[in-house]
Each structure stands twice: as structure tokens, then as C-alpha cells.
Amino acid sequence: KLCEPPYLKTIDWSKWHVFWADERVVPRNHQDSNYKLAKDGLLSKVPIIPGQVYSINDALSADGAAEDYEFGLRQLVKTRIVDVSTSSDCPRFDLILLGMGPDGHVASLFPSHPLTREKEKWIASIKDSPKPPPERITFTFPVLNSAANIAMVLTGANKADVLEKAFGDLQAPGVLPVQMVFPTEGSLVWFLDKPAASKL
Q1: Rounded Cα distance, 177 and 98, in Å
Q2: C-alpha to C-alpha distance for 120 and 142, rounded to whole angstroms
Q3: pTM of the model
Q4: Which residue of 4, 61, 156, 170 lies most exposed, with the fewest beta carbons within 10 A?
Q5: DSSP 8-state assignment for residue 53
Q6: Is it the case that residue 172 has pLDDT exceeding 70?
Q7: Cα–Cα distance between 111 and 103 in angstroms, integer?
Q8: For the purposes of burial, counting CB atoms within 10 Å of the CB of 106, is it exposed (0-12), middle (13-18) or buried (19 or more)?
Q9: Could you tell me what percentage of the chain is helix, strand and coil, using 3-state DSSP and rounding each to the nearest 5?
Q10: To 10 degrees, the CA torsion angle through 42, 46, 52, 54?
Q11: How far apart are CA 33 and CA 27, in angstroms?
């Protein structure tokens, strides 16, 4: 809908800076690339300034891409192009849009993976993702939870069981990454379709 009237003409696209909370370490034109998905679905259809779209360097390894992405983000925080959290040194994004996998993962933070406990890095690499492709970069929970707003968008019946496990009557607290999304000074809003919410 953002690509259509009235939004296409009424939104001040010059103020937009676009990042990826996680990305697969594949070429930008690869079918698994989140950048390609966003470009095809939105970025190529709206007048966002190209220099304000921050994709990973797809020529680097997972470790190198994560370090490079974090370095660039730290420069943008230093110059206040990206706000900084008042309670930490983390970037404070206006909005982070998240989904959830059927295993309860968010971004590329998977259940029982050591990265769910990362406290120092803003952006980390993962080389053993249980969901292919195995190499990715991801925002860590300190960055996610410093956002001013998080929109959690979940659709489909394959999300119902994990949502029931995470937030239903018999929930086990703090087991799944989706349960760890909790902005310290921001808002978390859930958008569920009926199949996803069917067991809540």
C-alpha cells in the first residue's frame, strides 16, 4: 500500500533510512536475499534516496559482513543520523519490522543459539542457521529492544502452535526468542491474522 496513492506522494521519503534486522549472506540478486525481496516489493517503487538504503556488503564473509555493517551503523549513530538509546549505547531505530519463524525465531536469533545471549555486539554473524541458507547477519537483542517501535507481523496457521507455546495459557517464559522481544523504552505492537492467532 505504501507504493500506491495517497502514500506514495504524501510520505516524506527523503527522511527514510532503511536497514535490515537480518540478512542472508548471499548475493544481492539471489532469490534468498532479503534486500532483493525488499527492493522488488517496495524500494524500487518509492523515491527513497539510494544512499539511505543500507544493504550488507555481499562480497564479504558472514563475519566480515557483520563487522562491516556494525561499523557503518556505529558511524551513523555517532553523527546522529540514527538516534541513540538513552539507556544504552545502542541505536534507537524509529521502527523495526519483525516476523517470527514457526520455531519462534526472530531476525536470525534462533532457539537455544548462543547469539540469543549476545550483549556486546550490535550485529552478529551466524554460520549455522538451522534454516537455510546457513550464513546470515542479525541484529542482536540489545539493538532490537532499544527500538522506539517494534511491529511484529505474523501470518499463517503454521505460527499458531508456537504462539500458543510462547503466550498461551501454558506458556514457558523466556524459552523462545520471540518471548525475548521487549523494547525497554518503546512500544511492541502485534499484527496477527486469524490463522496465526487461532490458538490464543
Answers
A1: 12
A2: 8
A3: 0.94
A4: 170
A5: B
A6: no
A7: 7
A8: buried
A9: 30, 15, 55
A10: 20
A11: 7
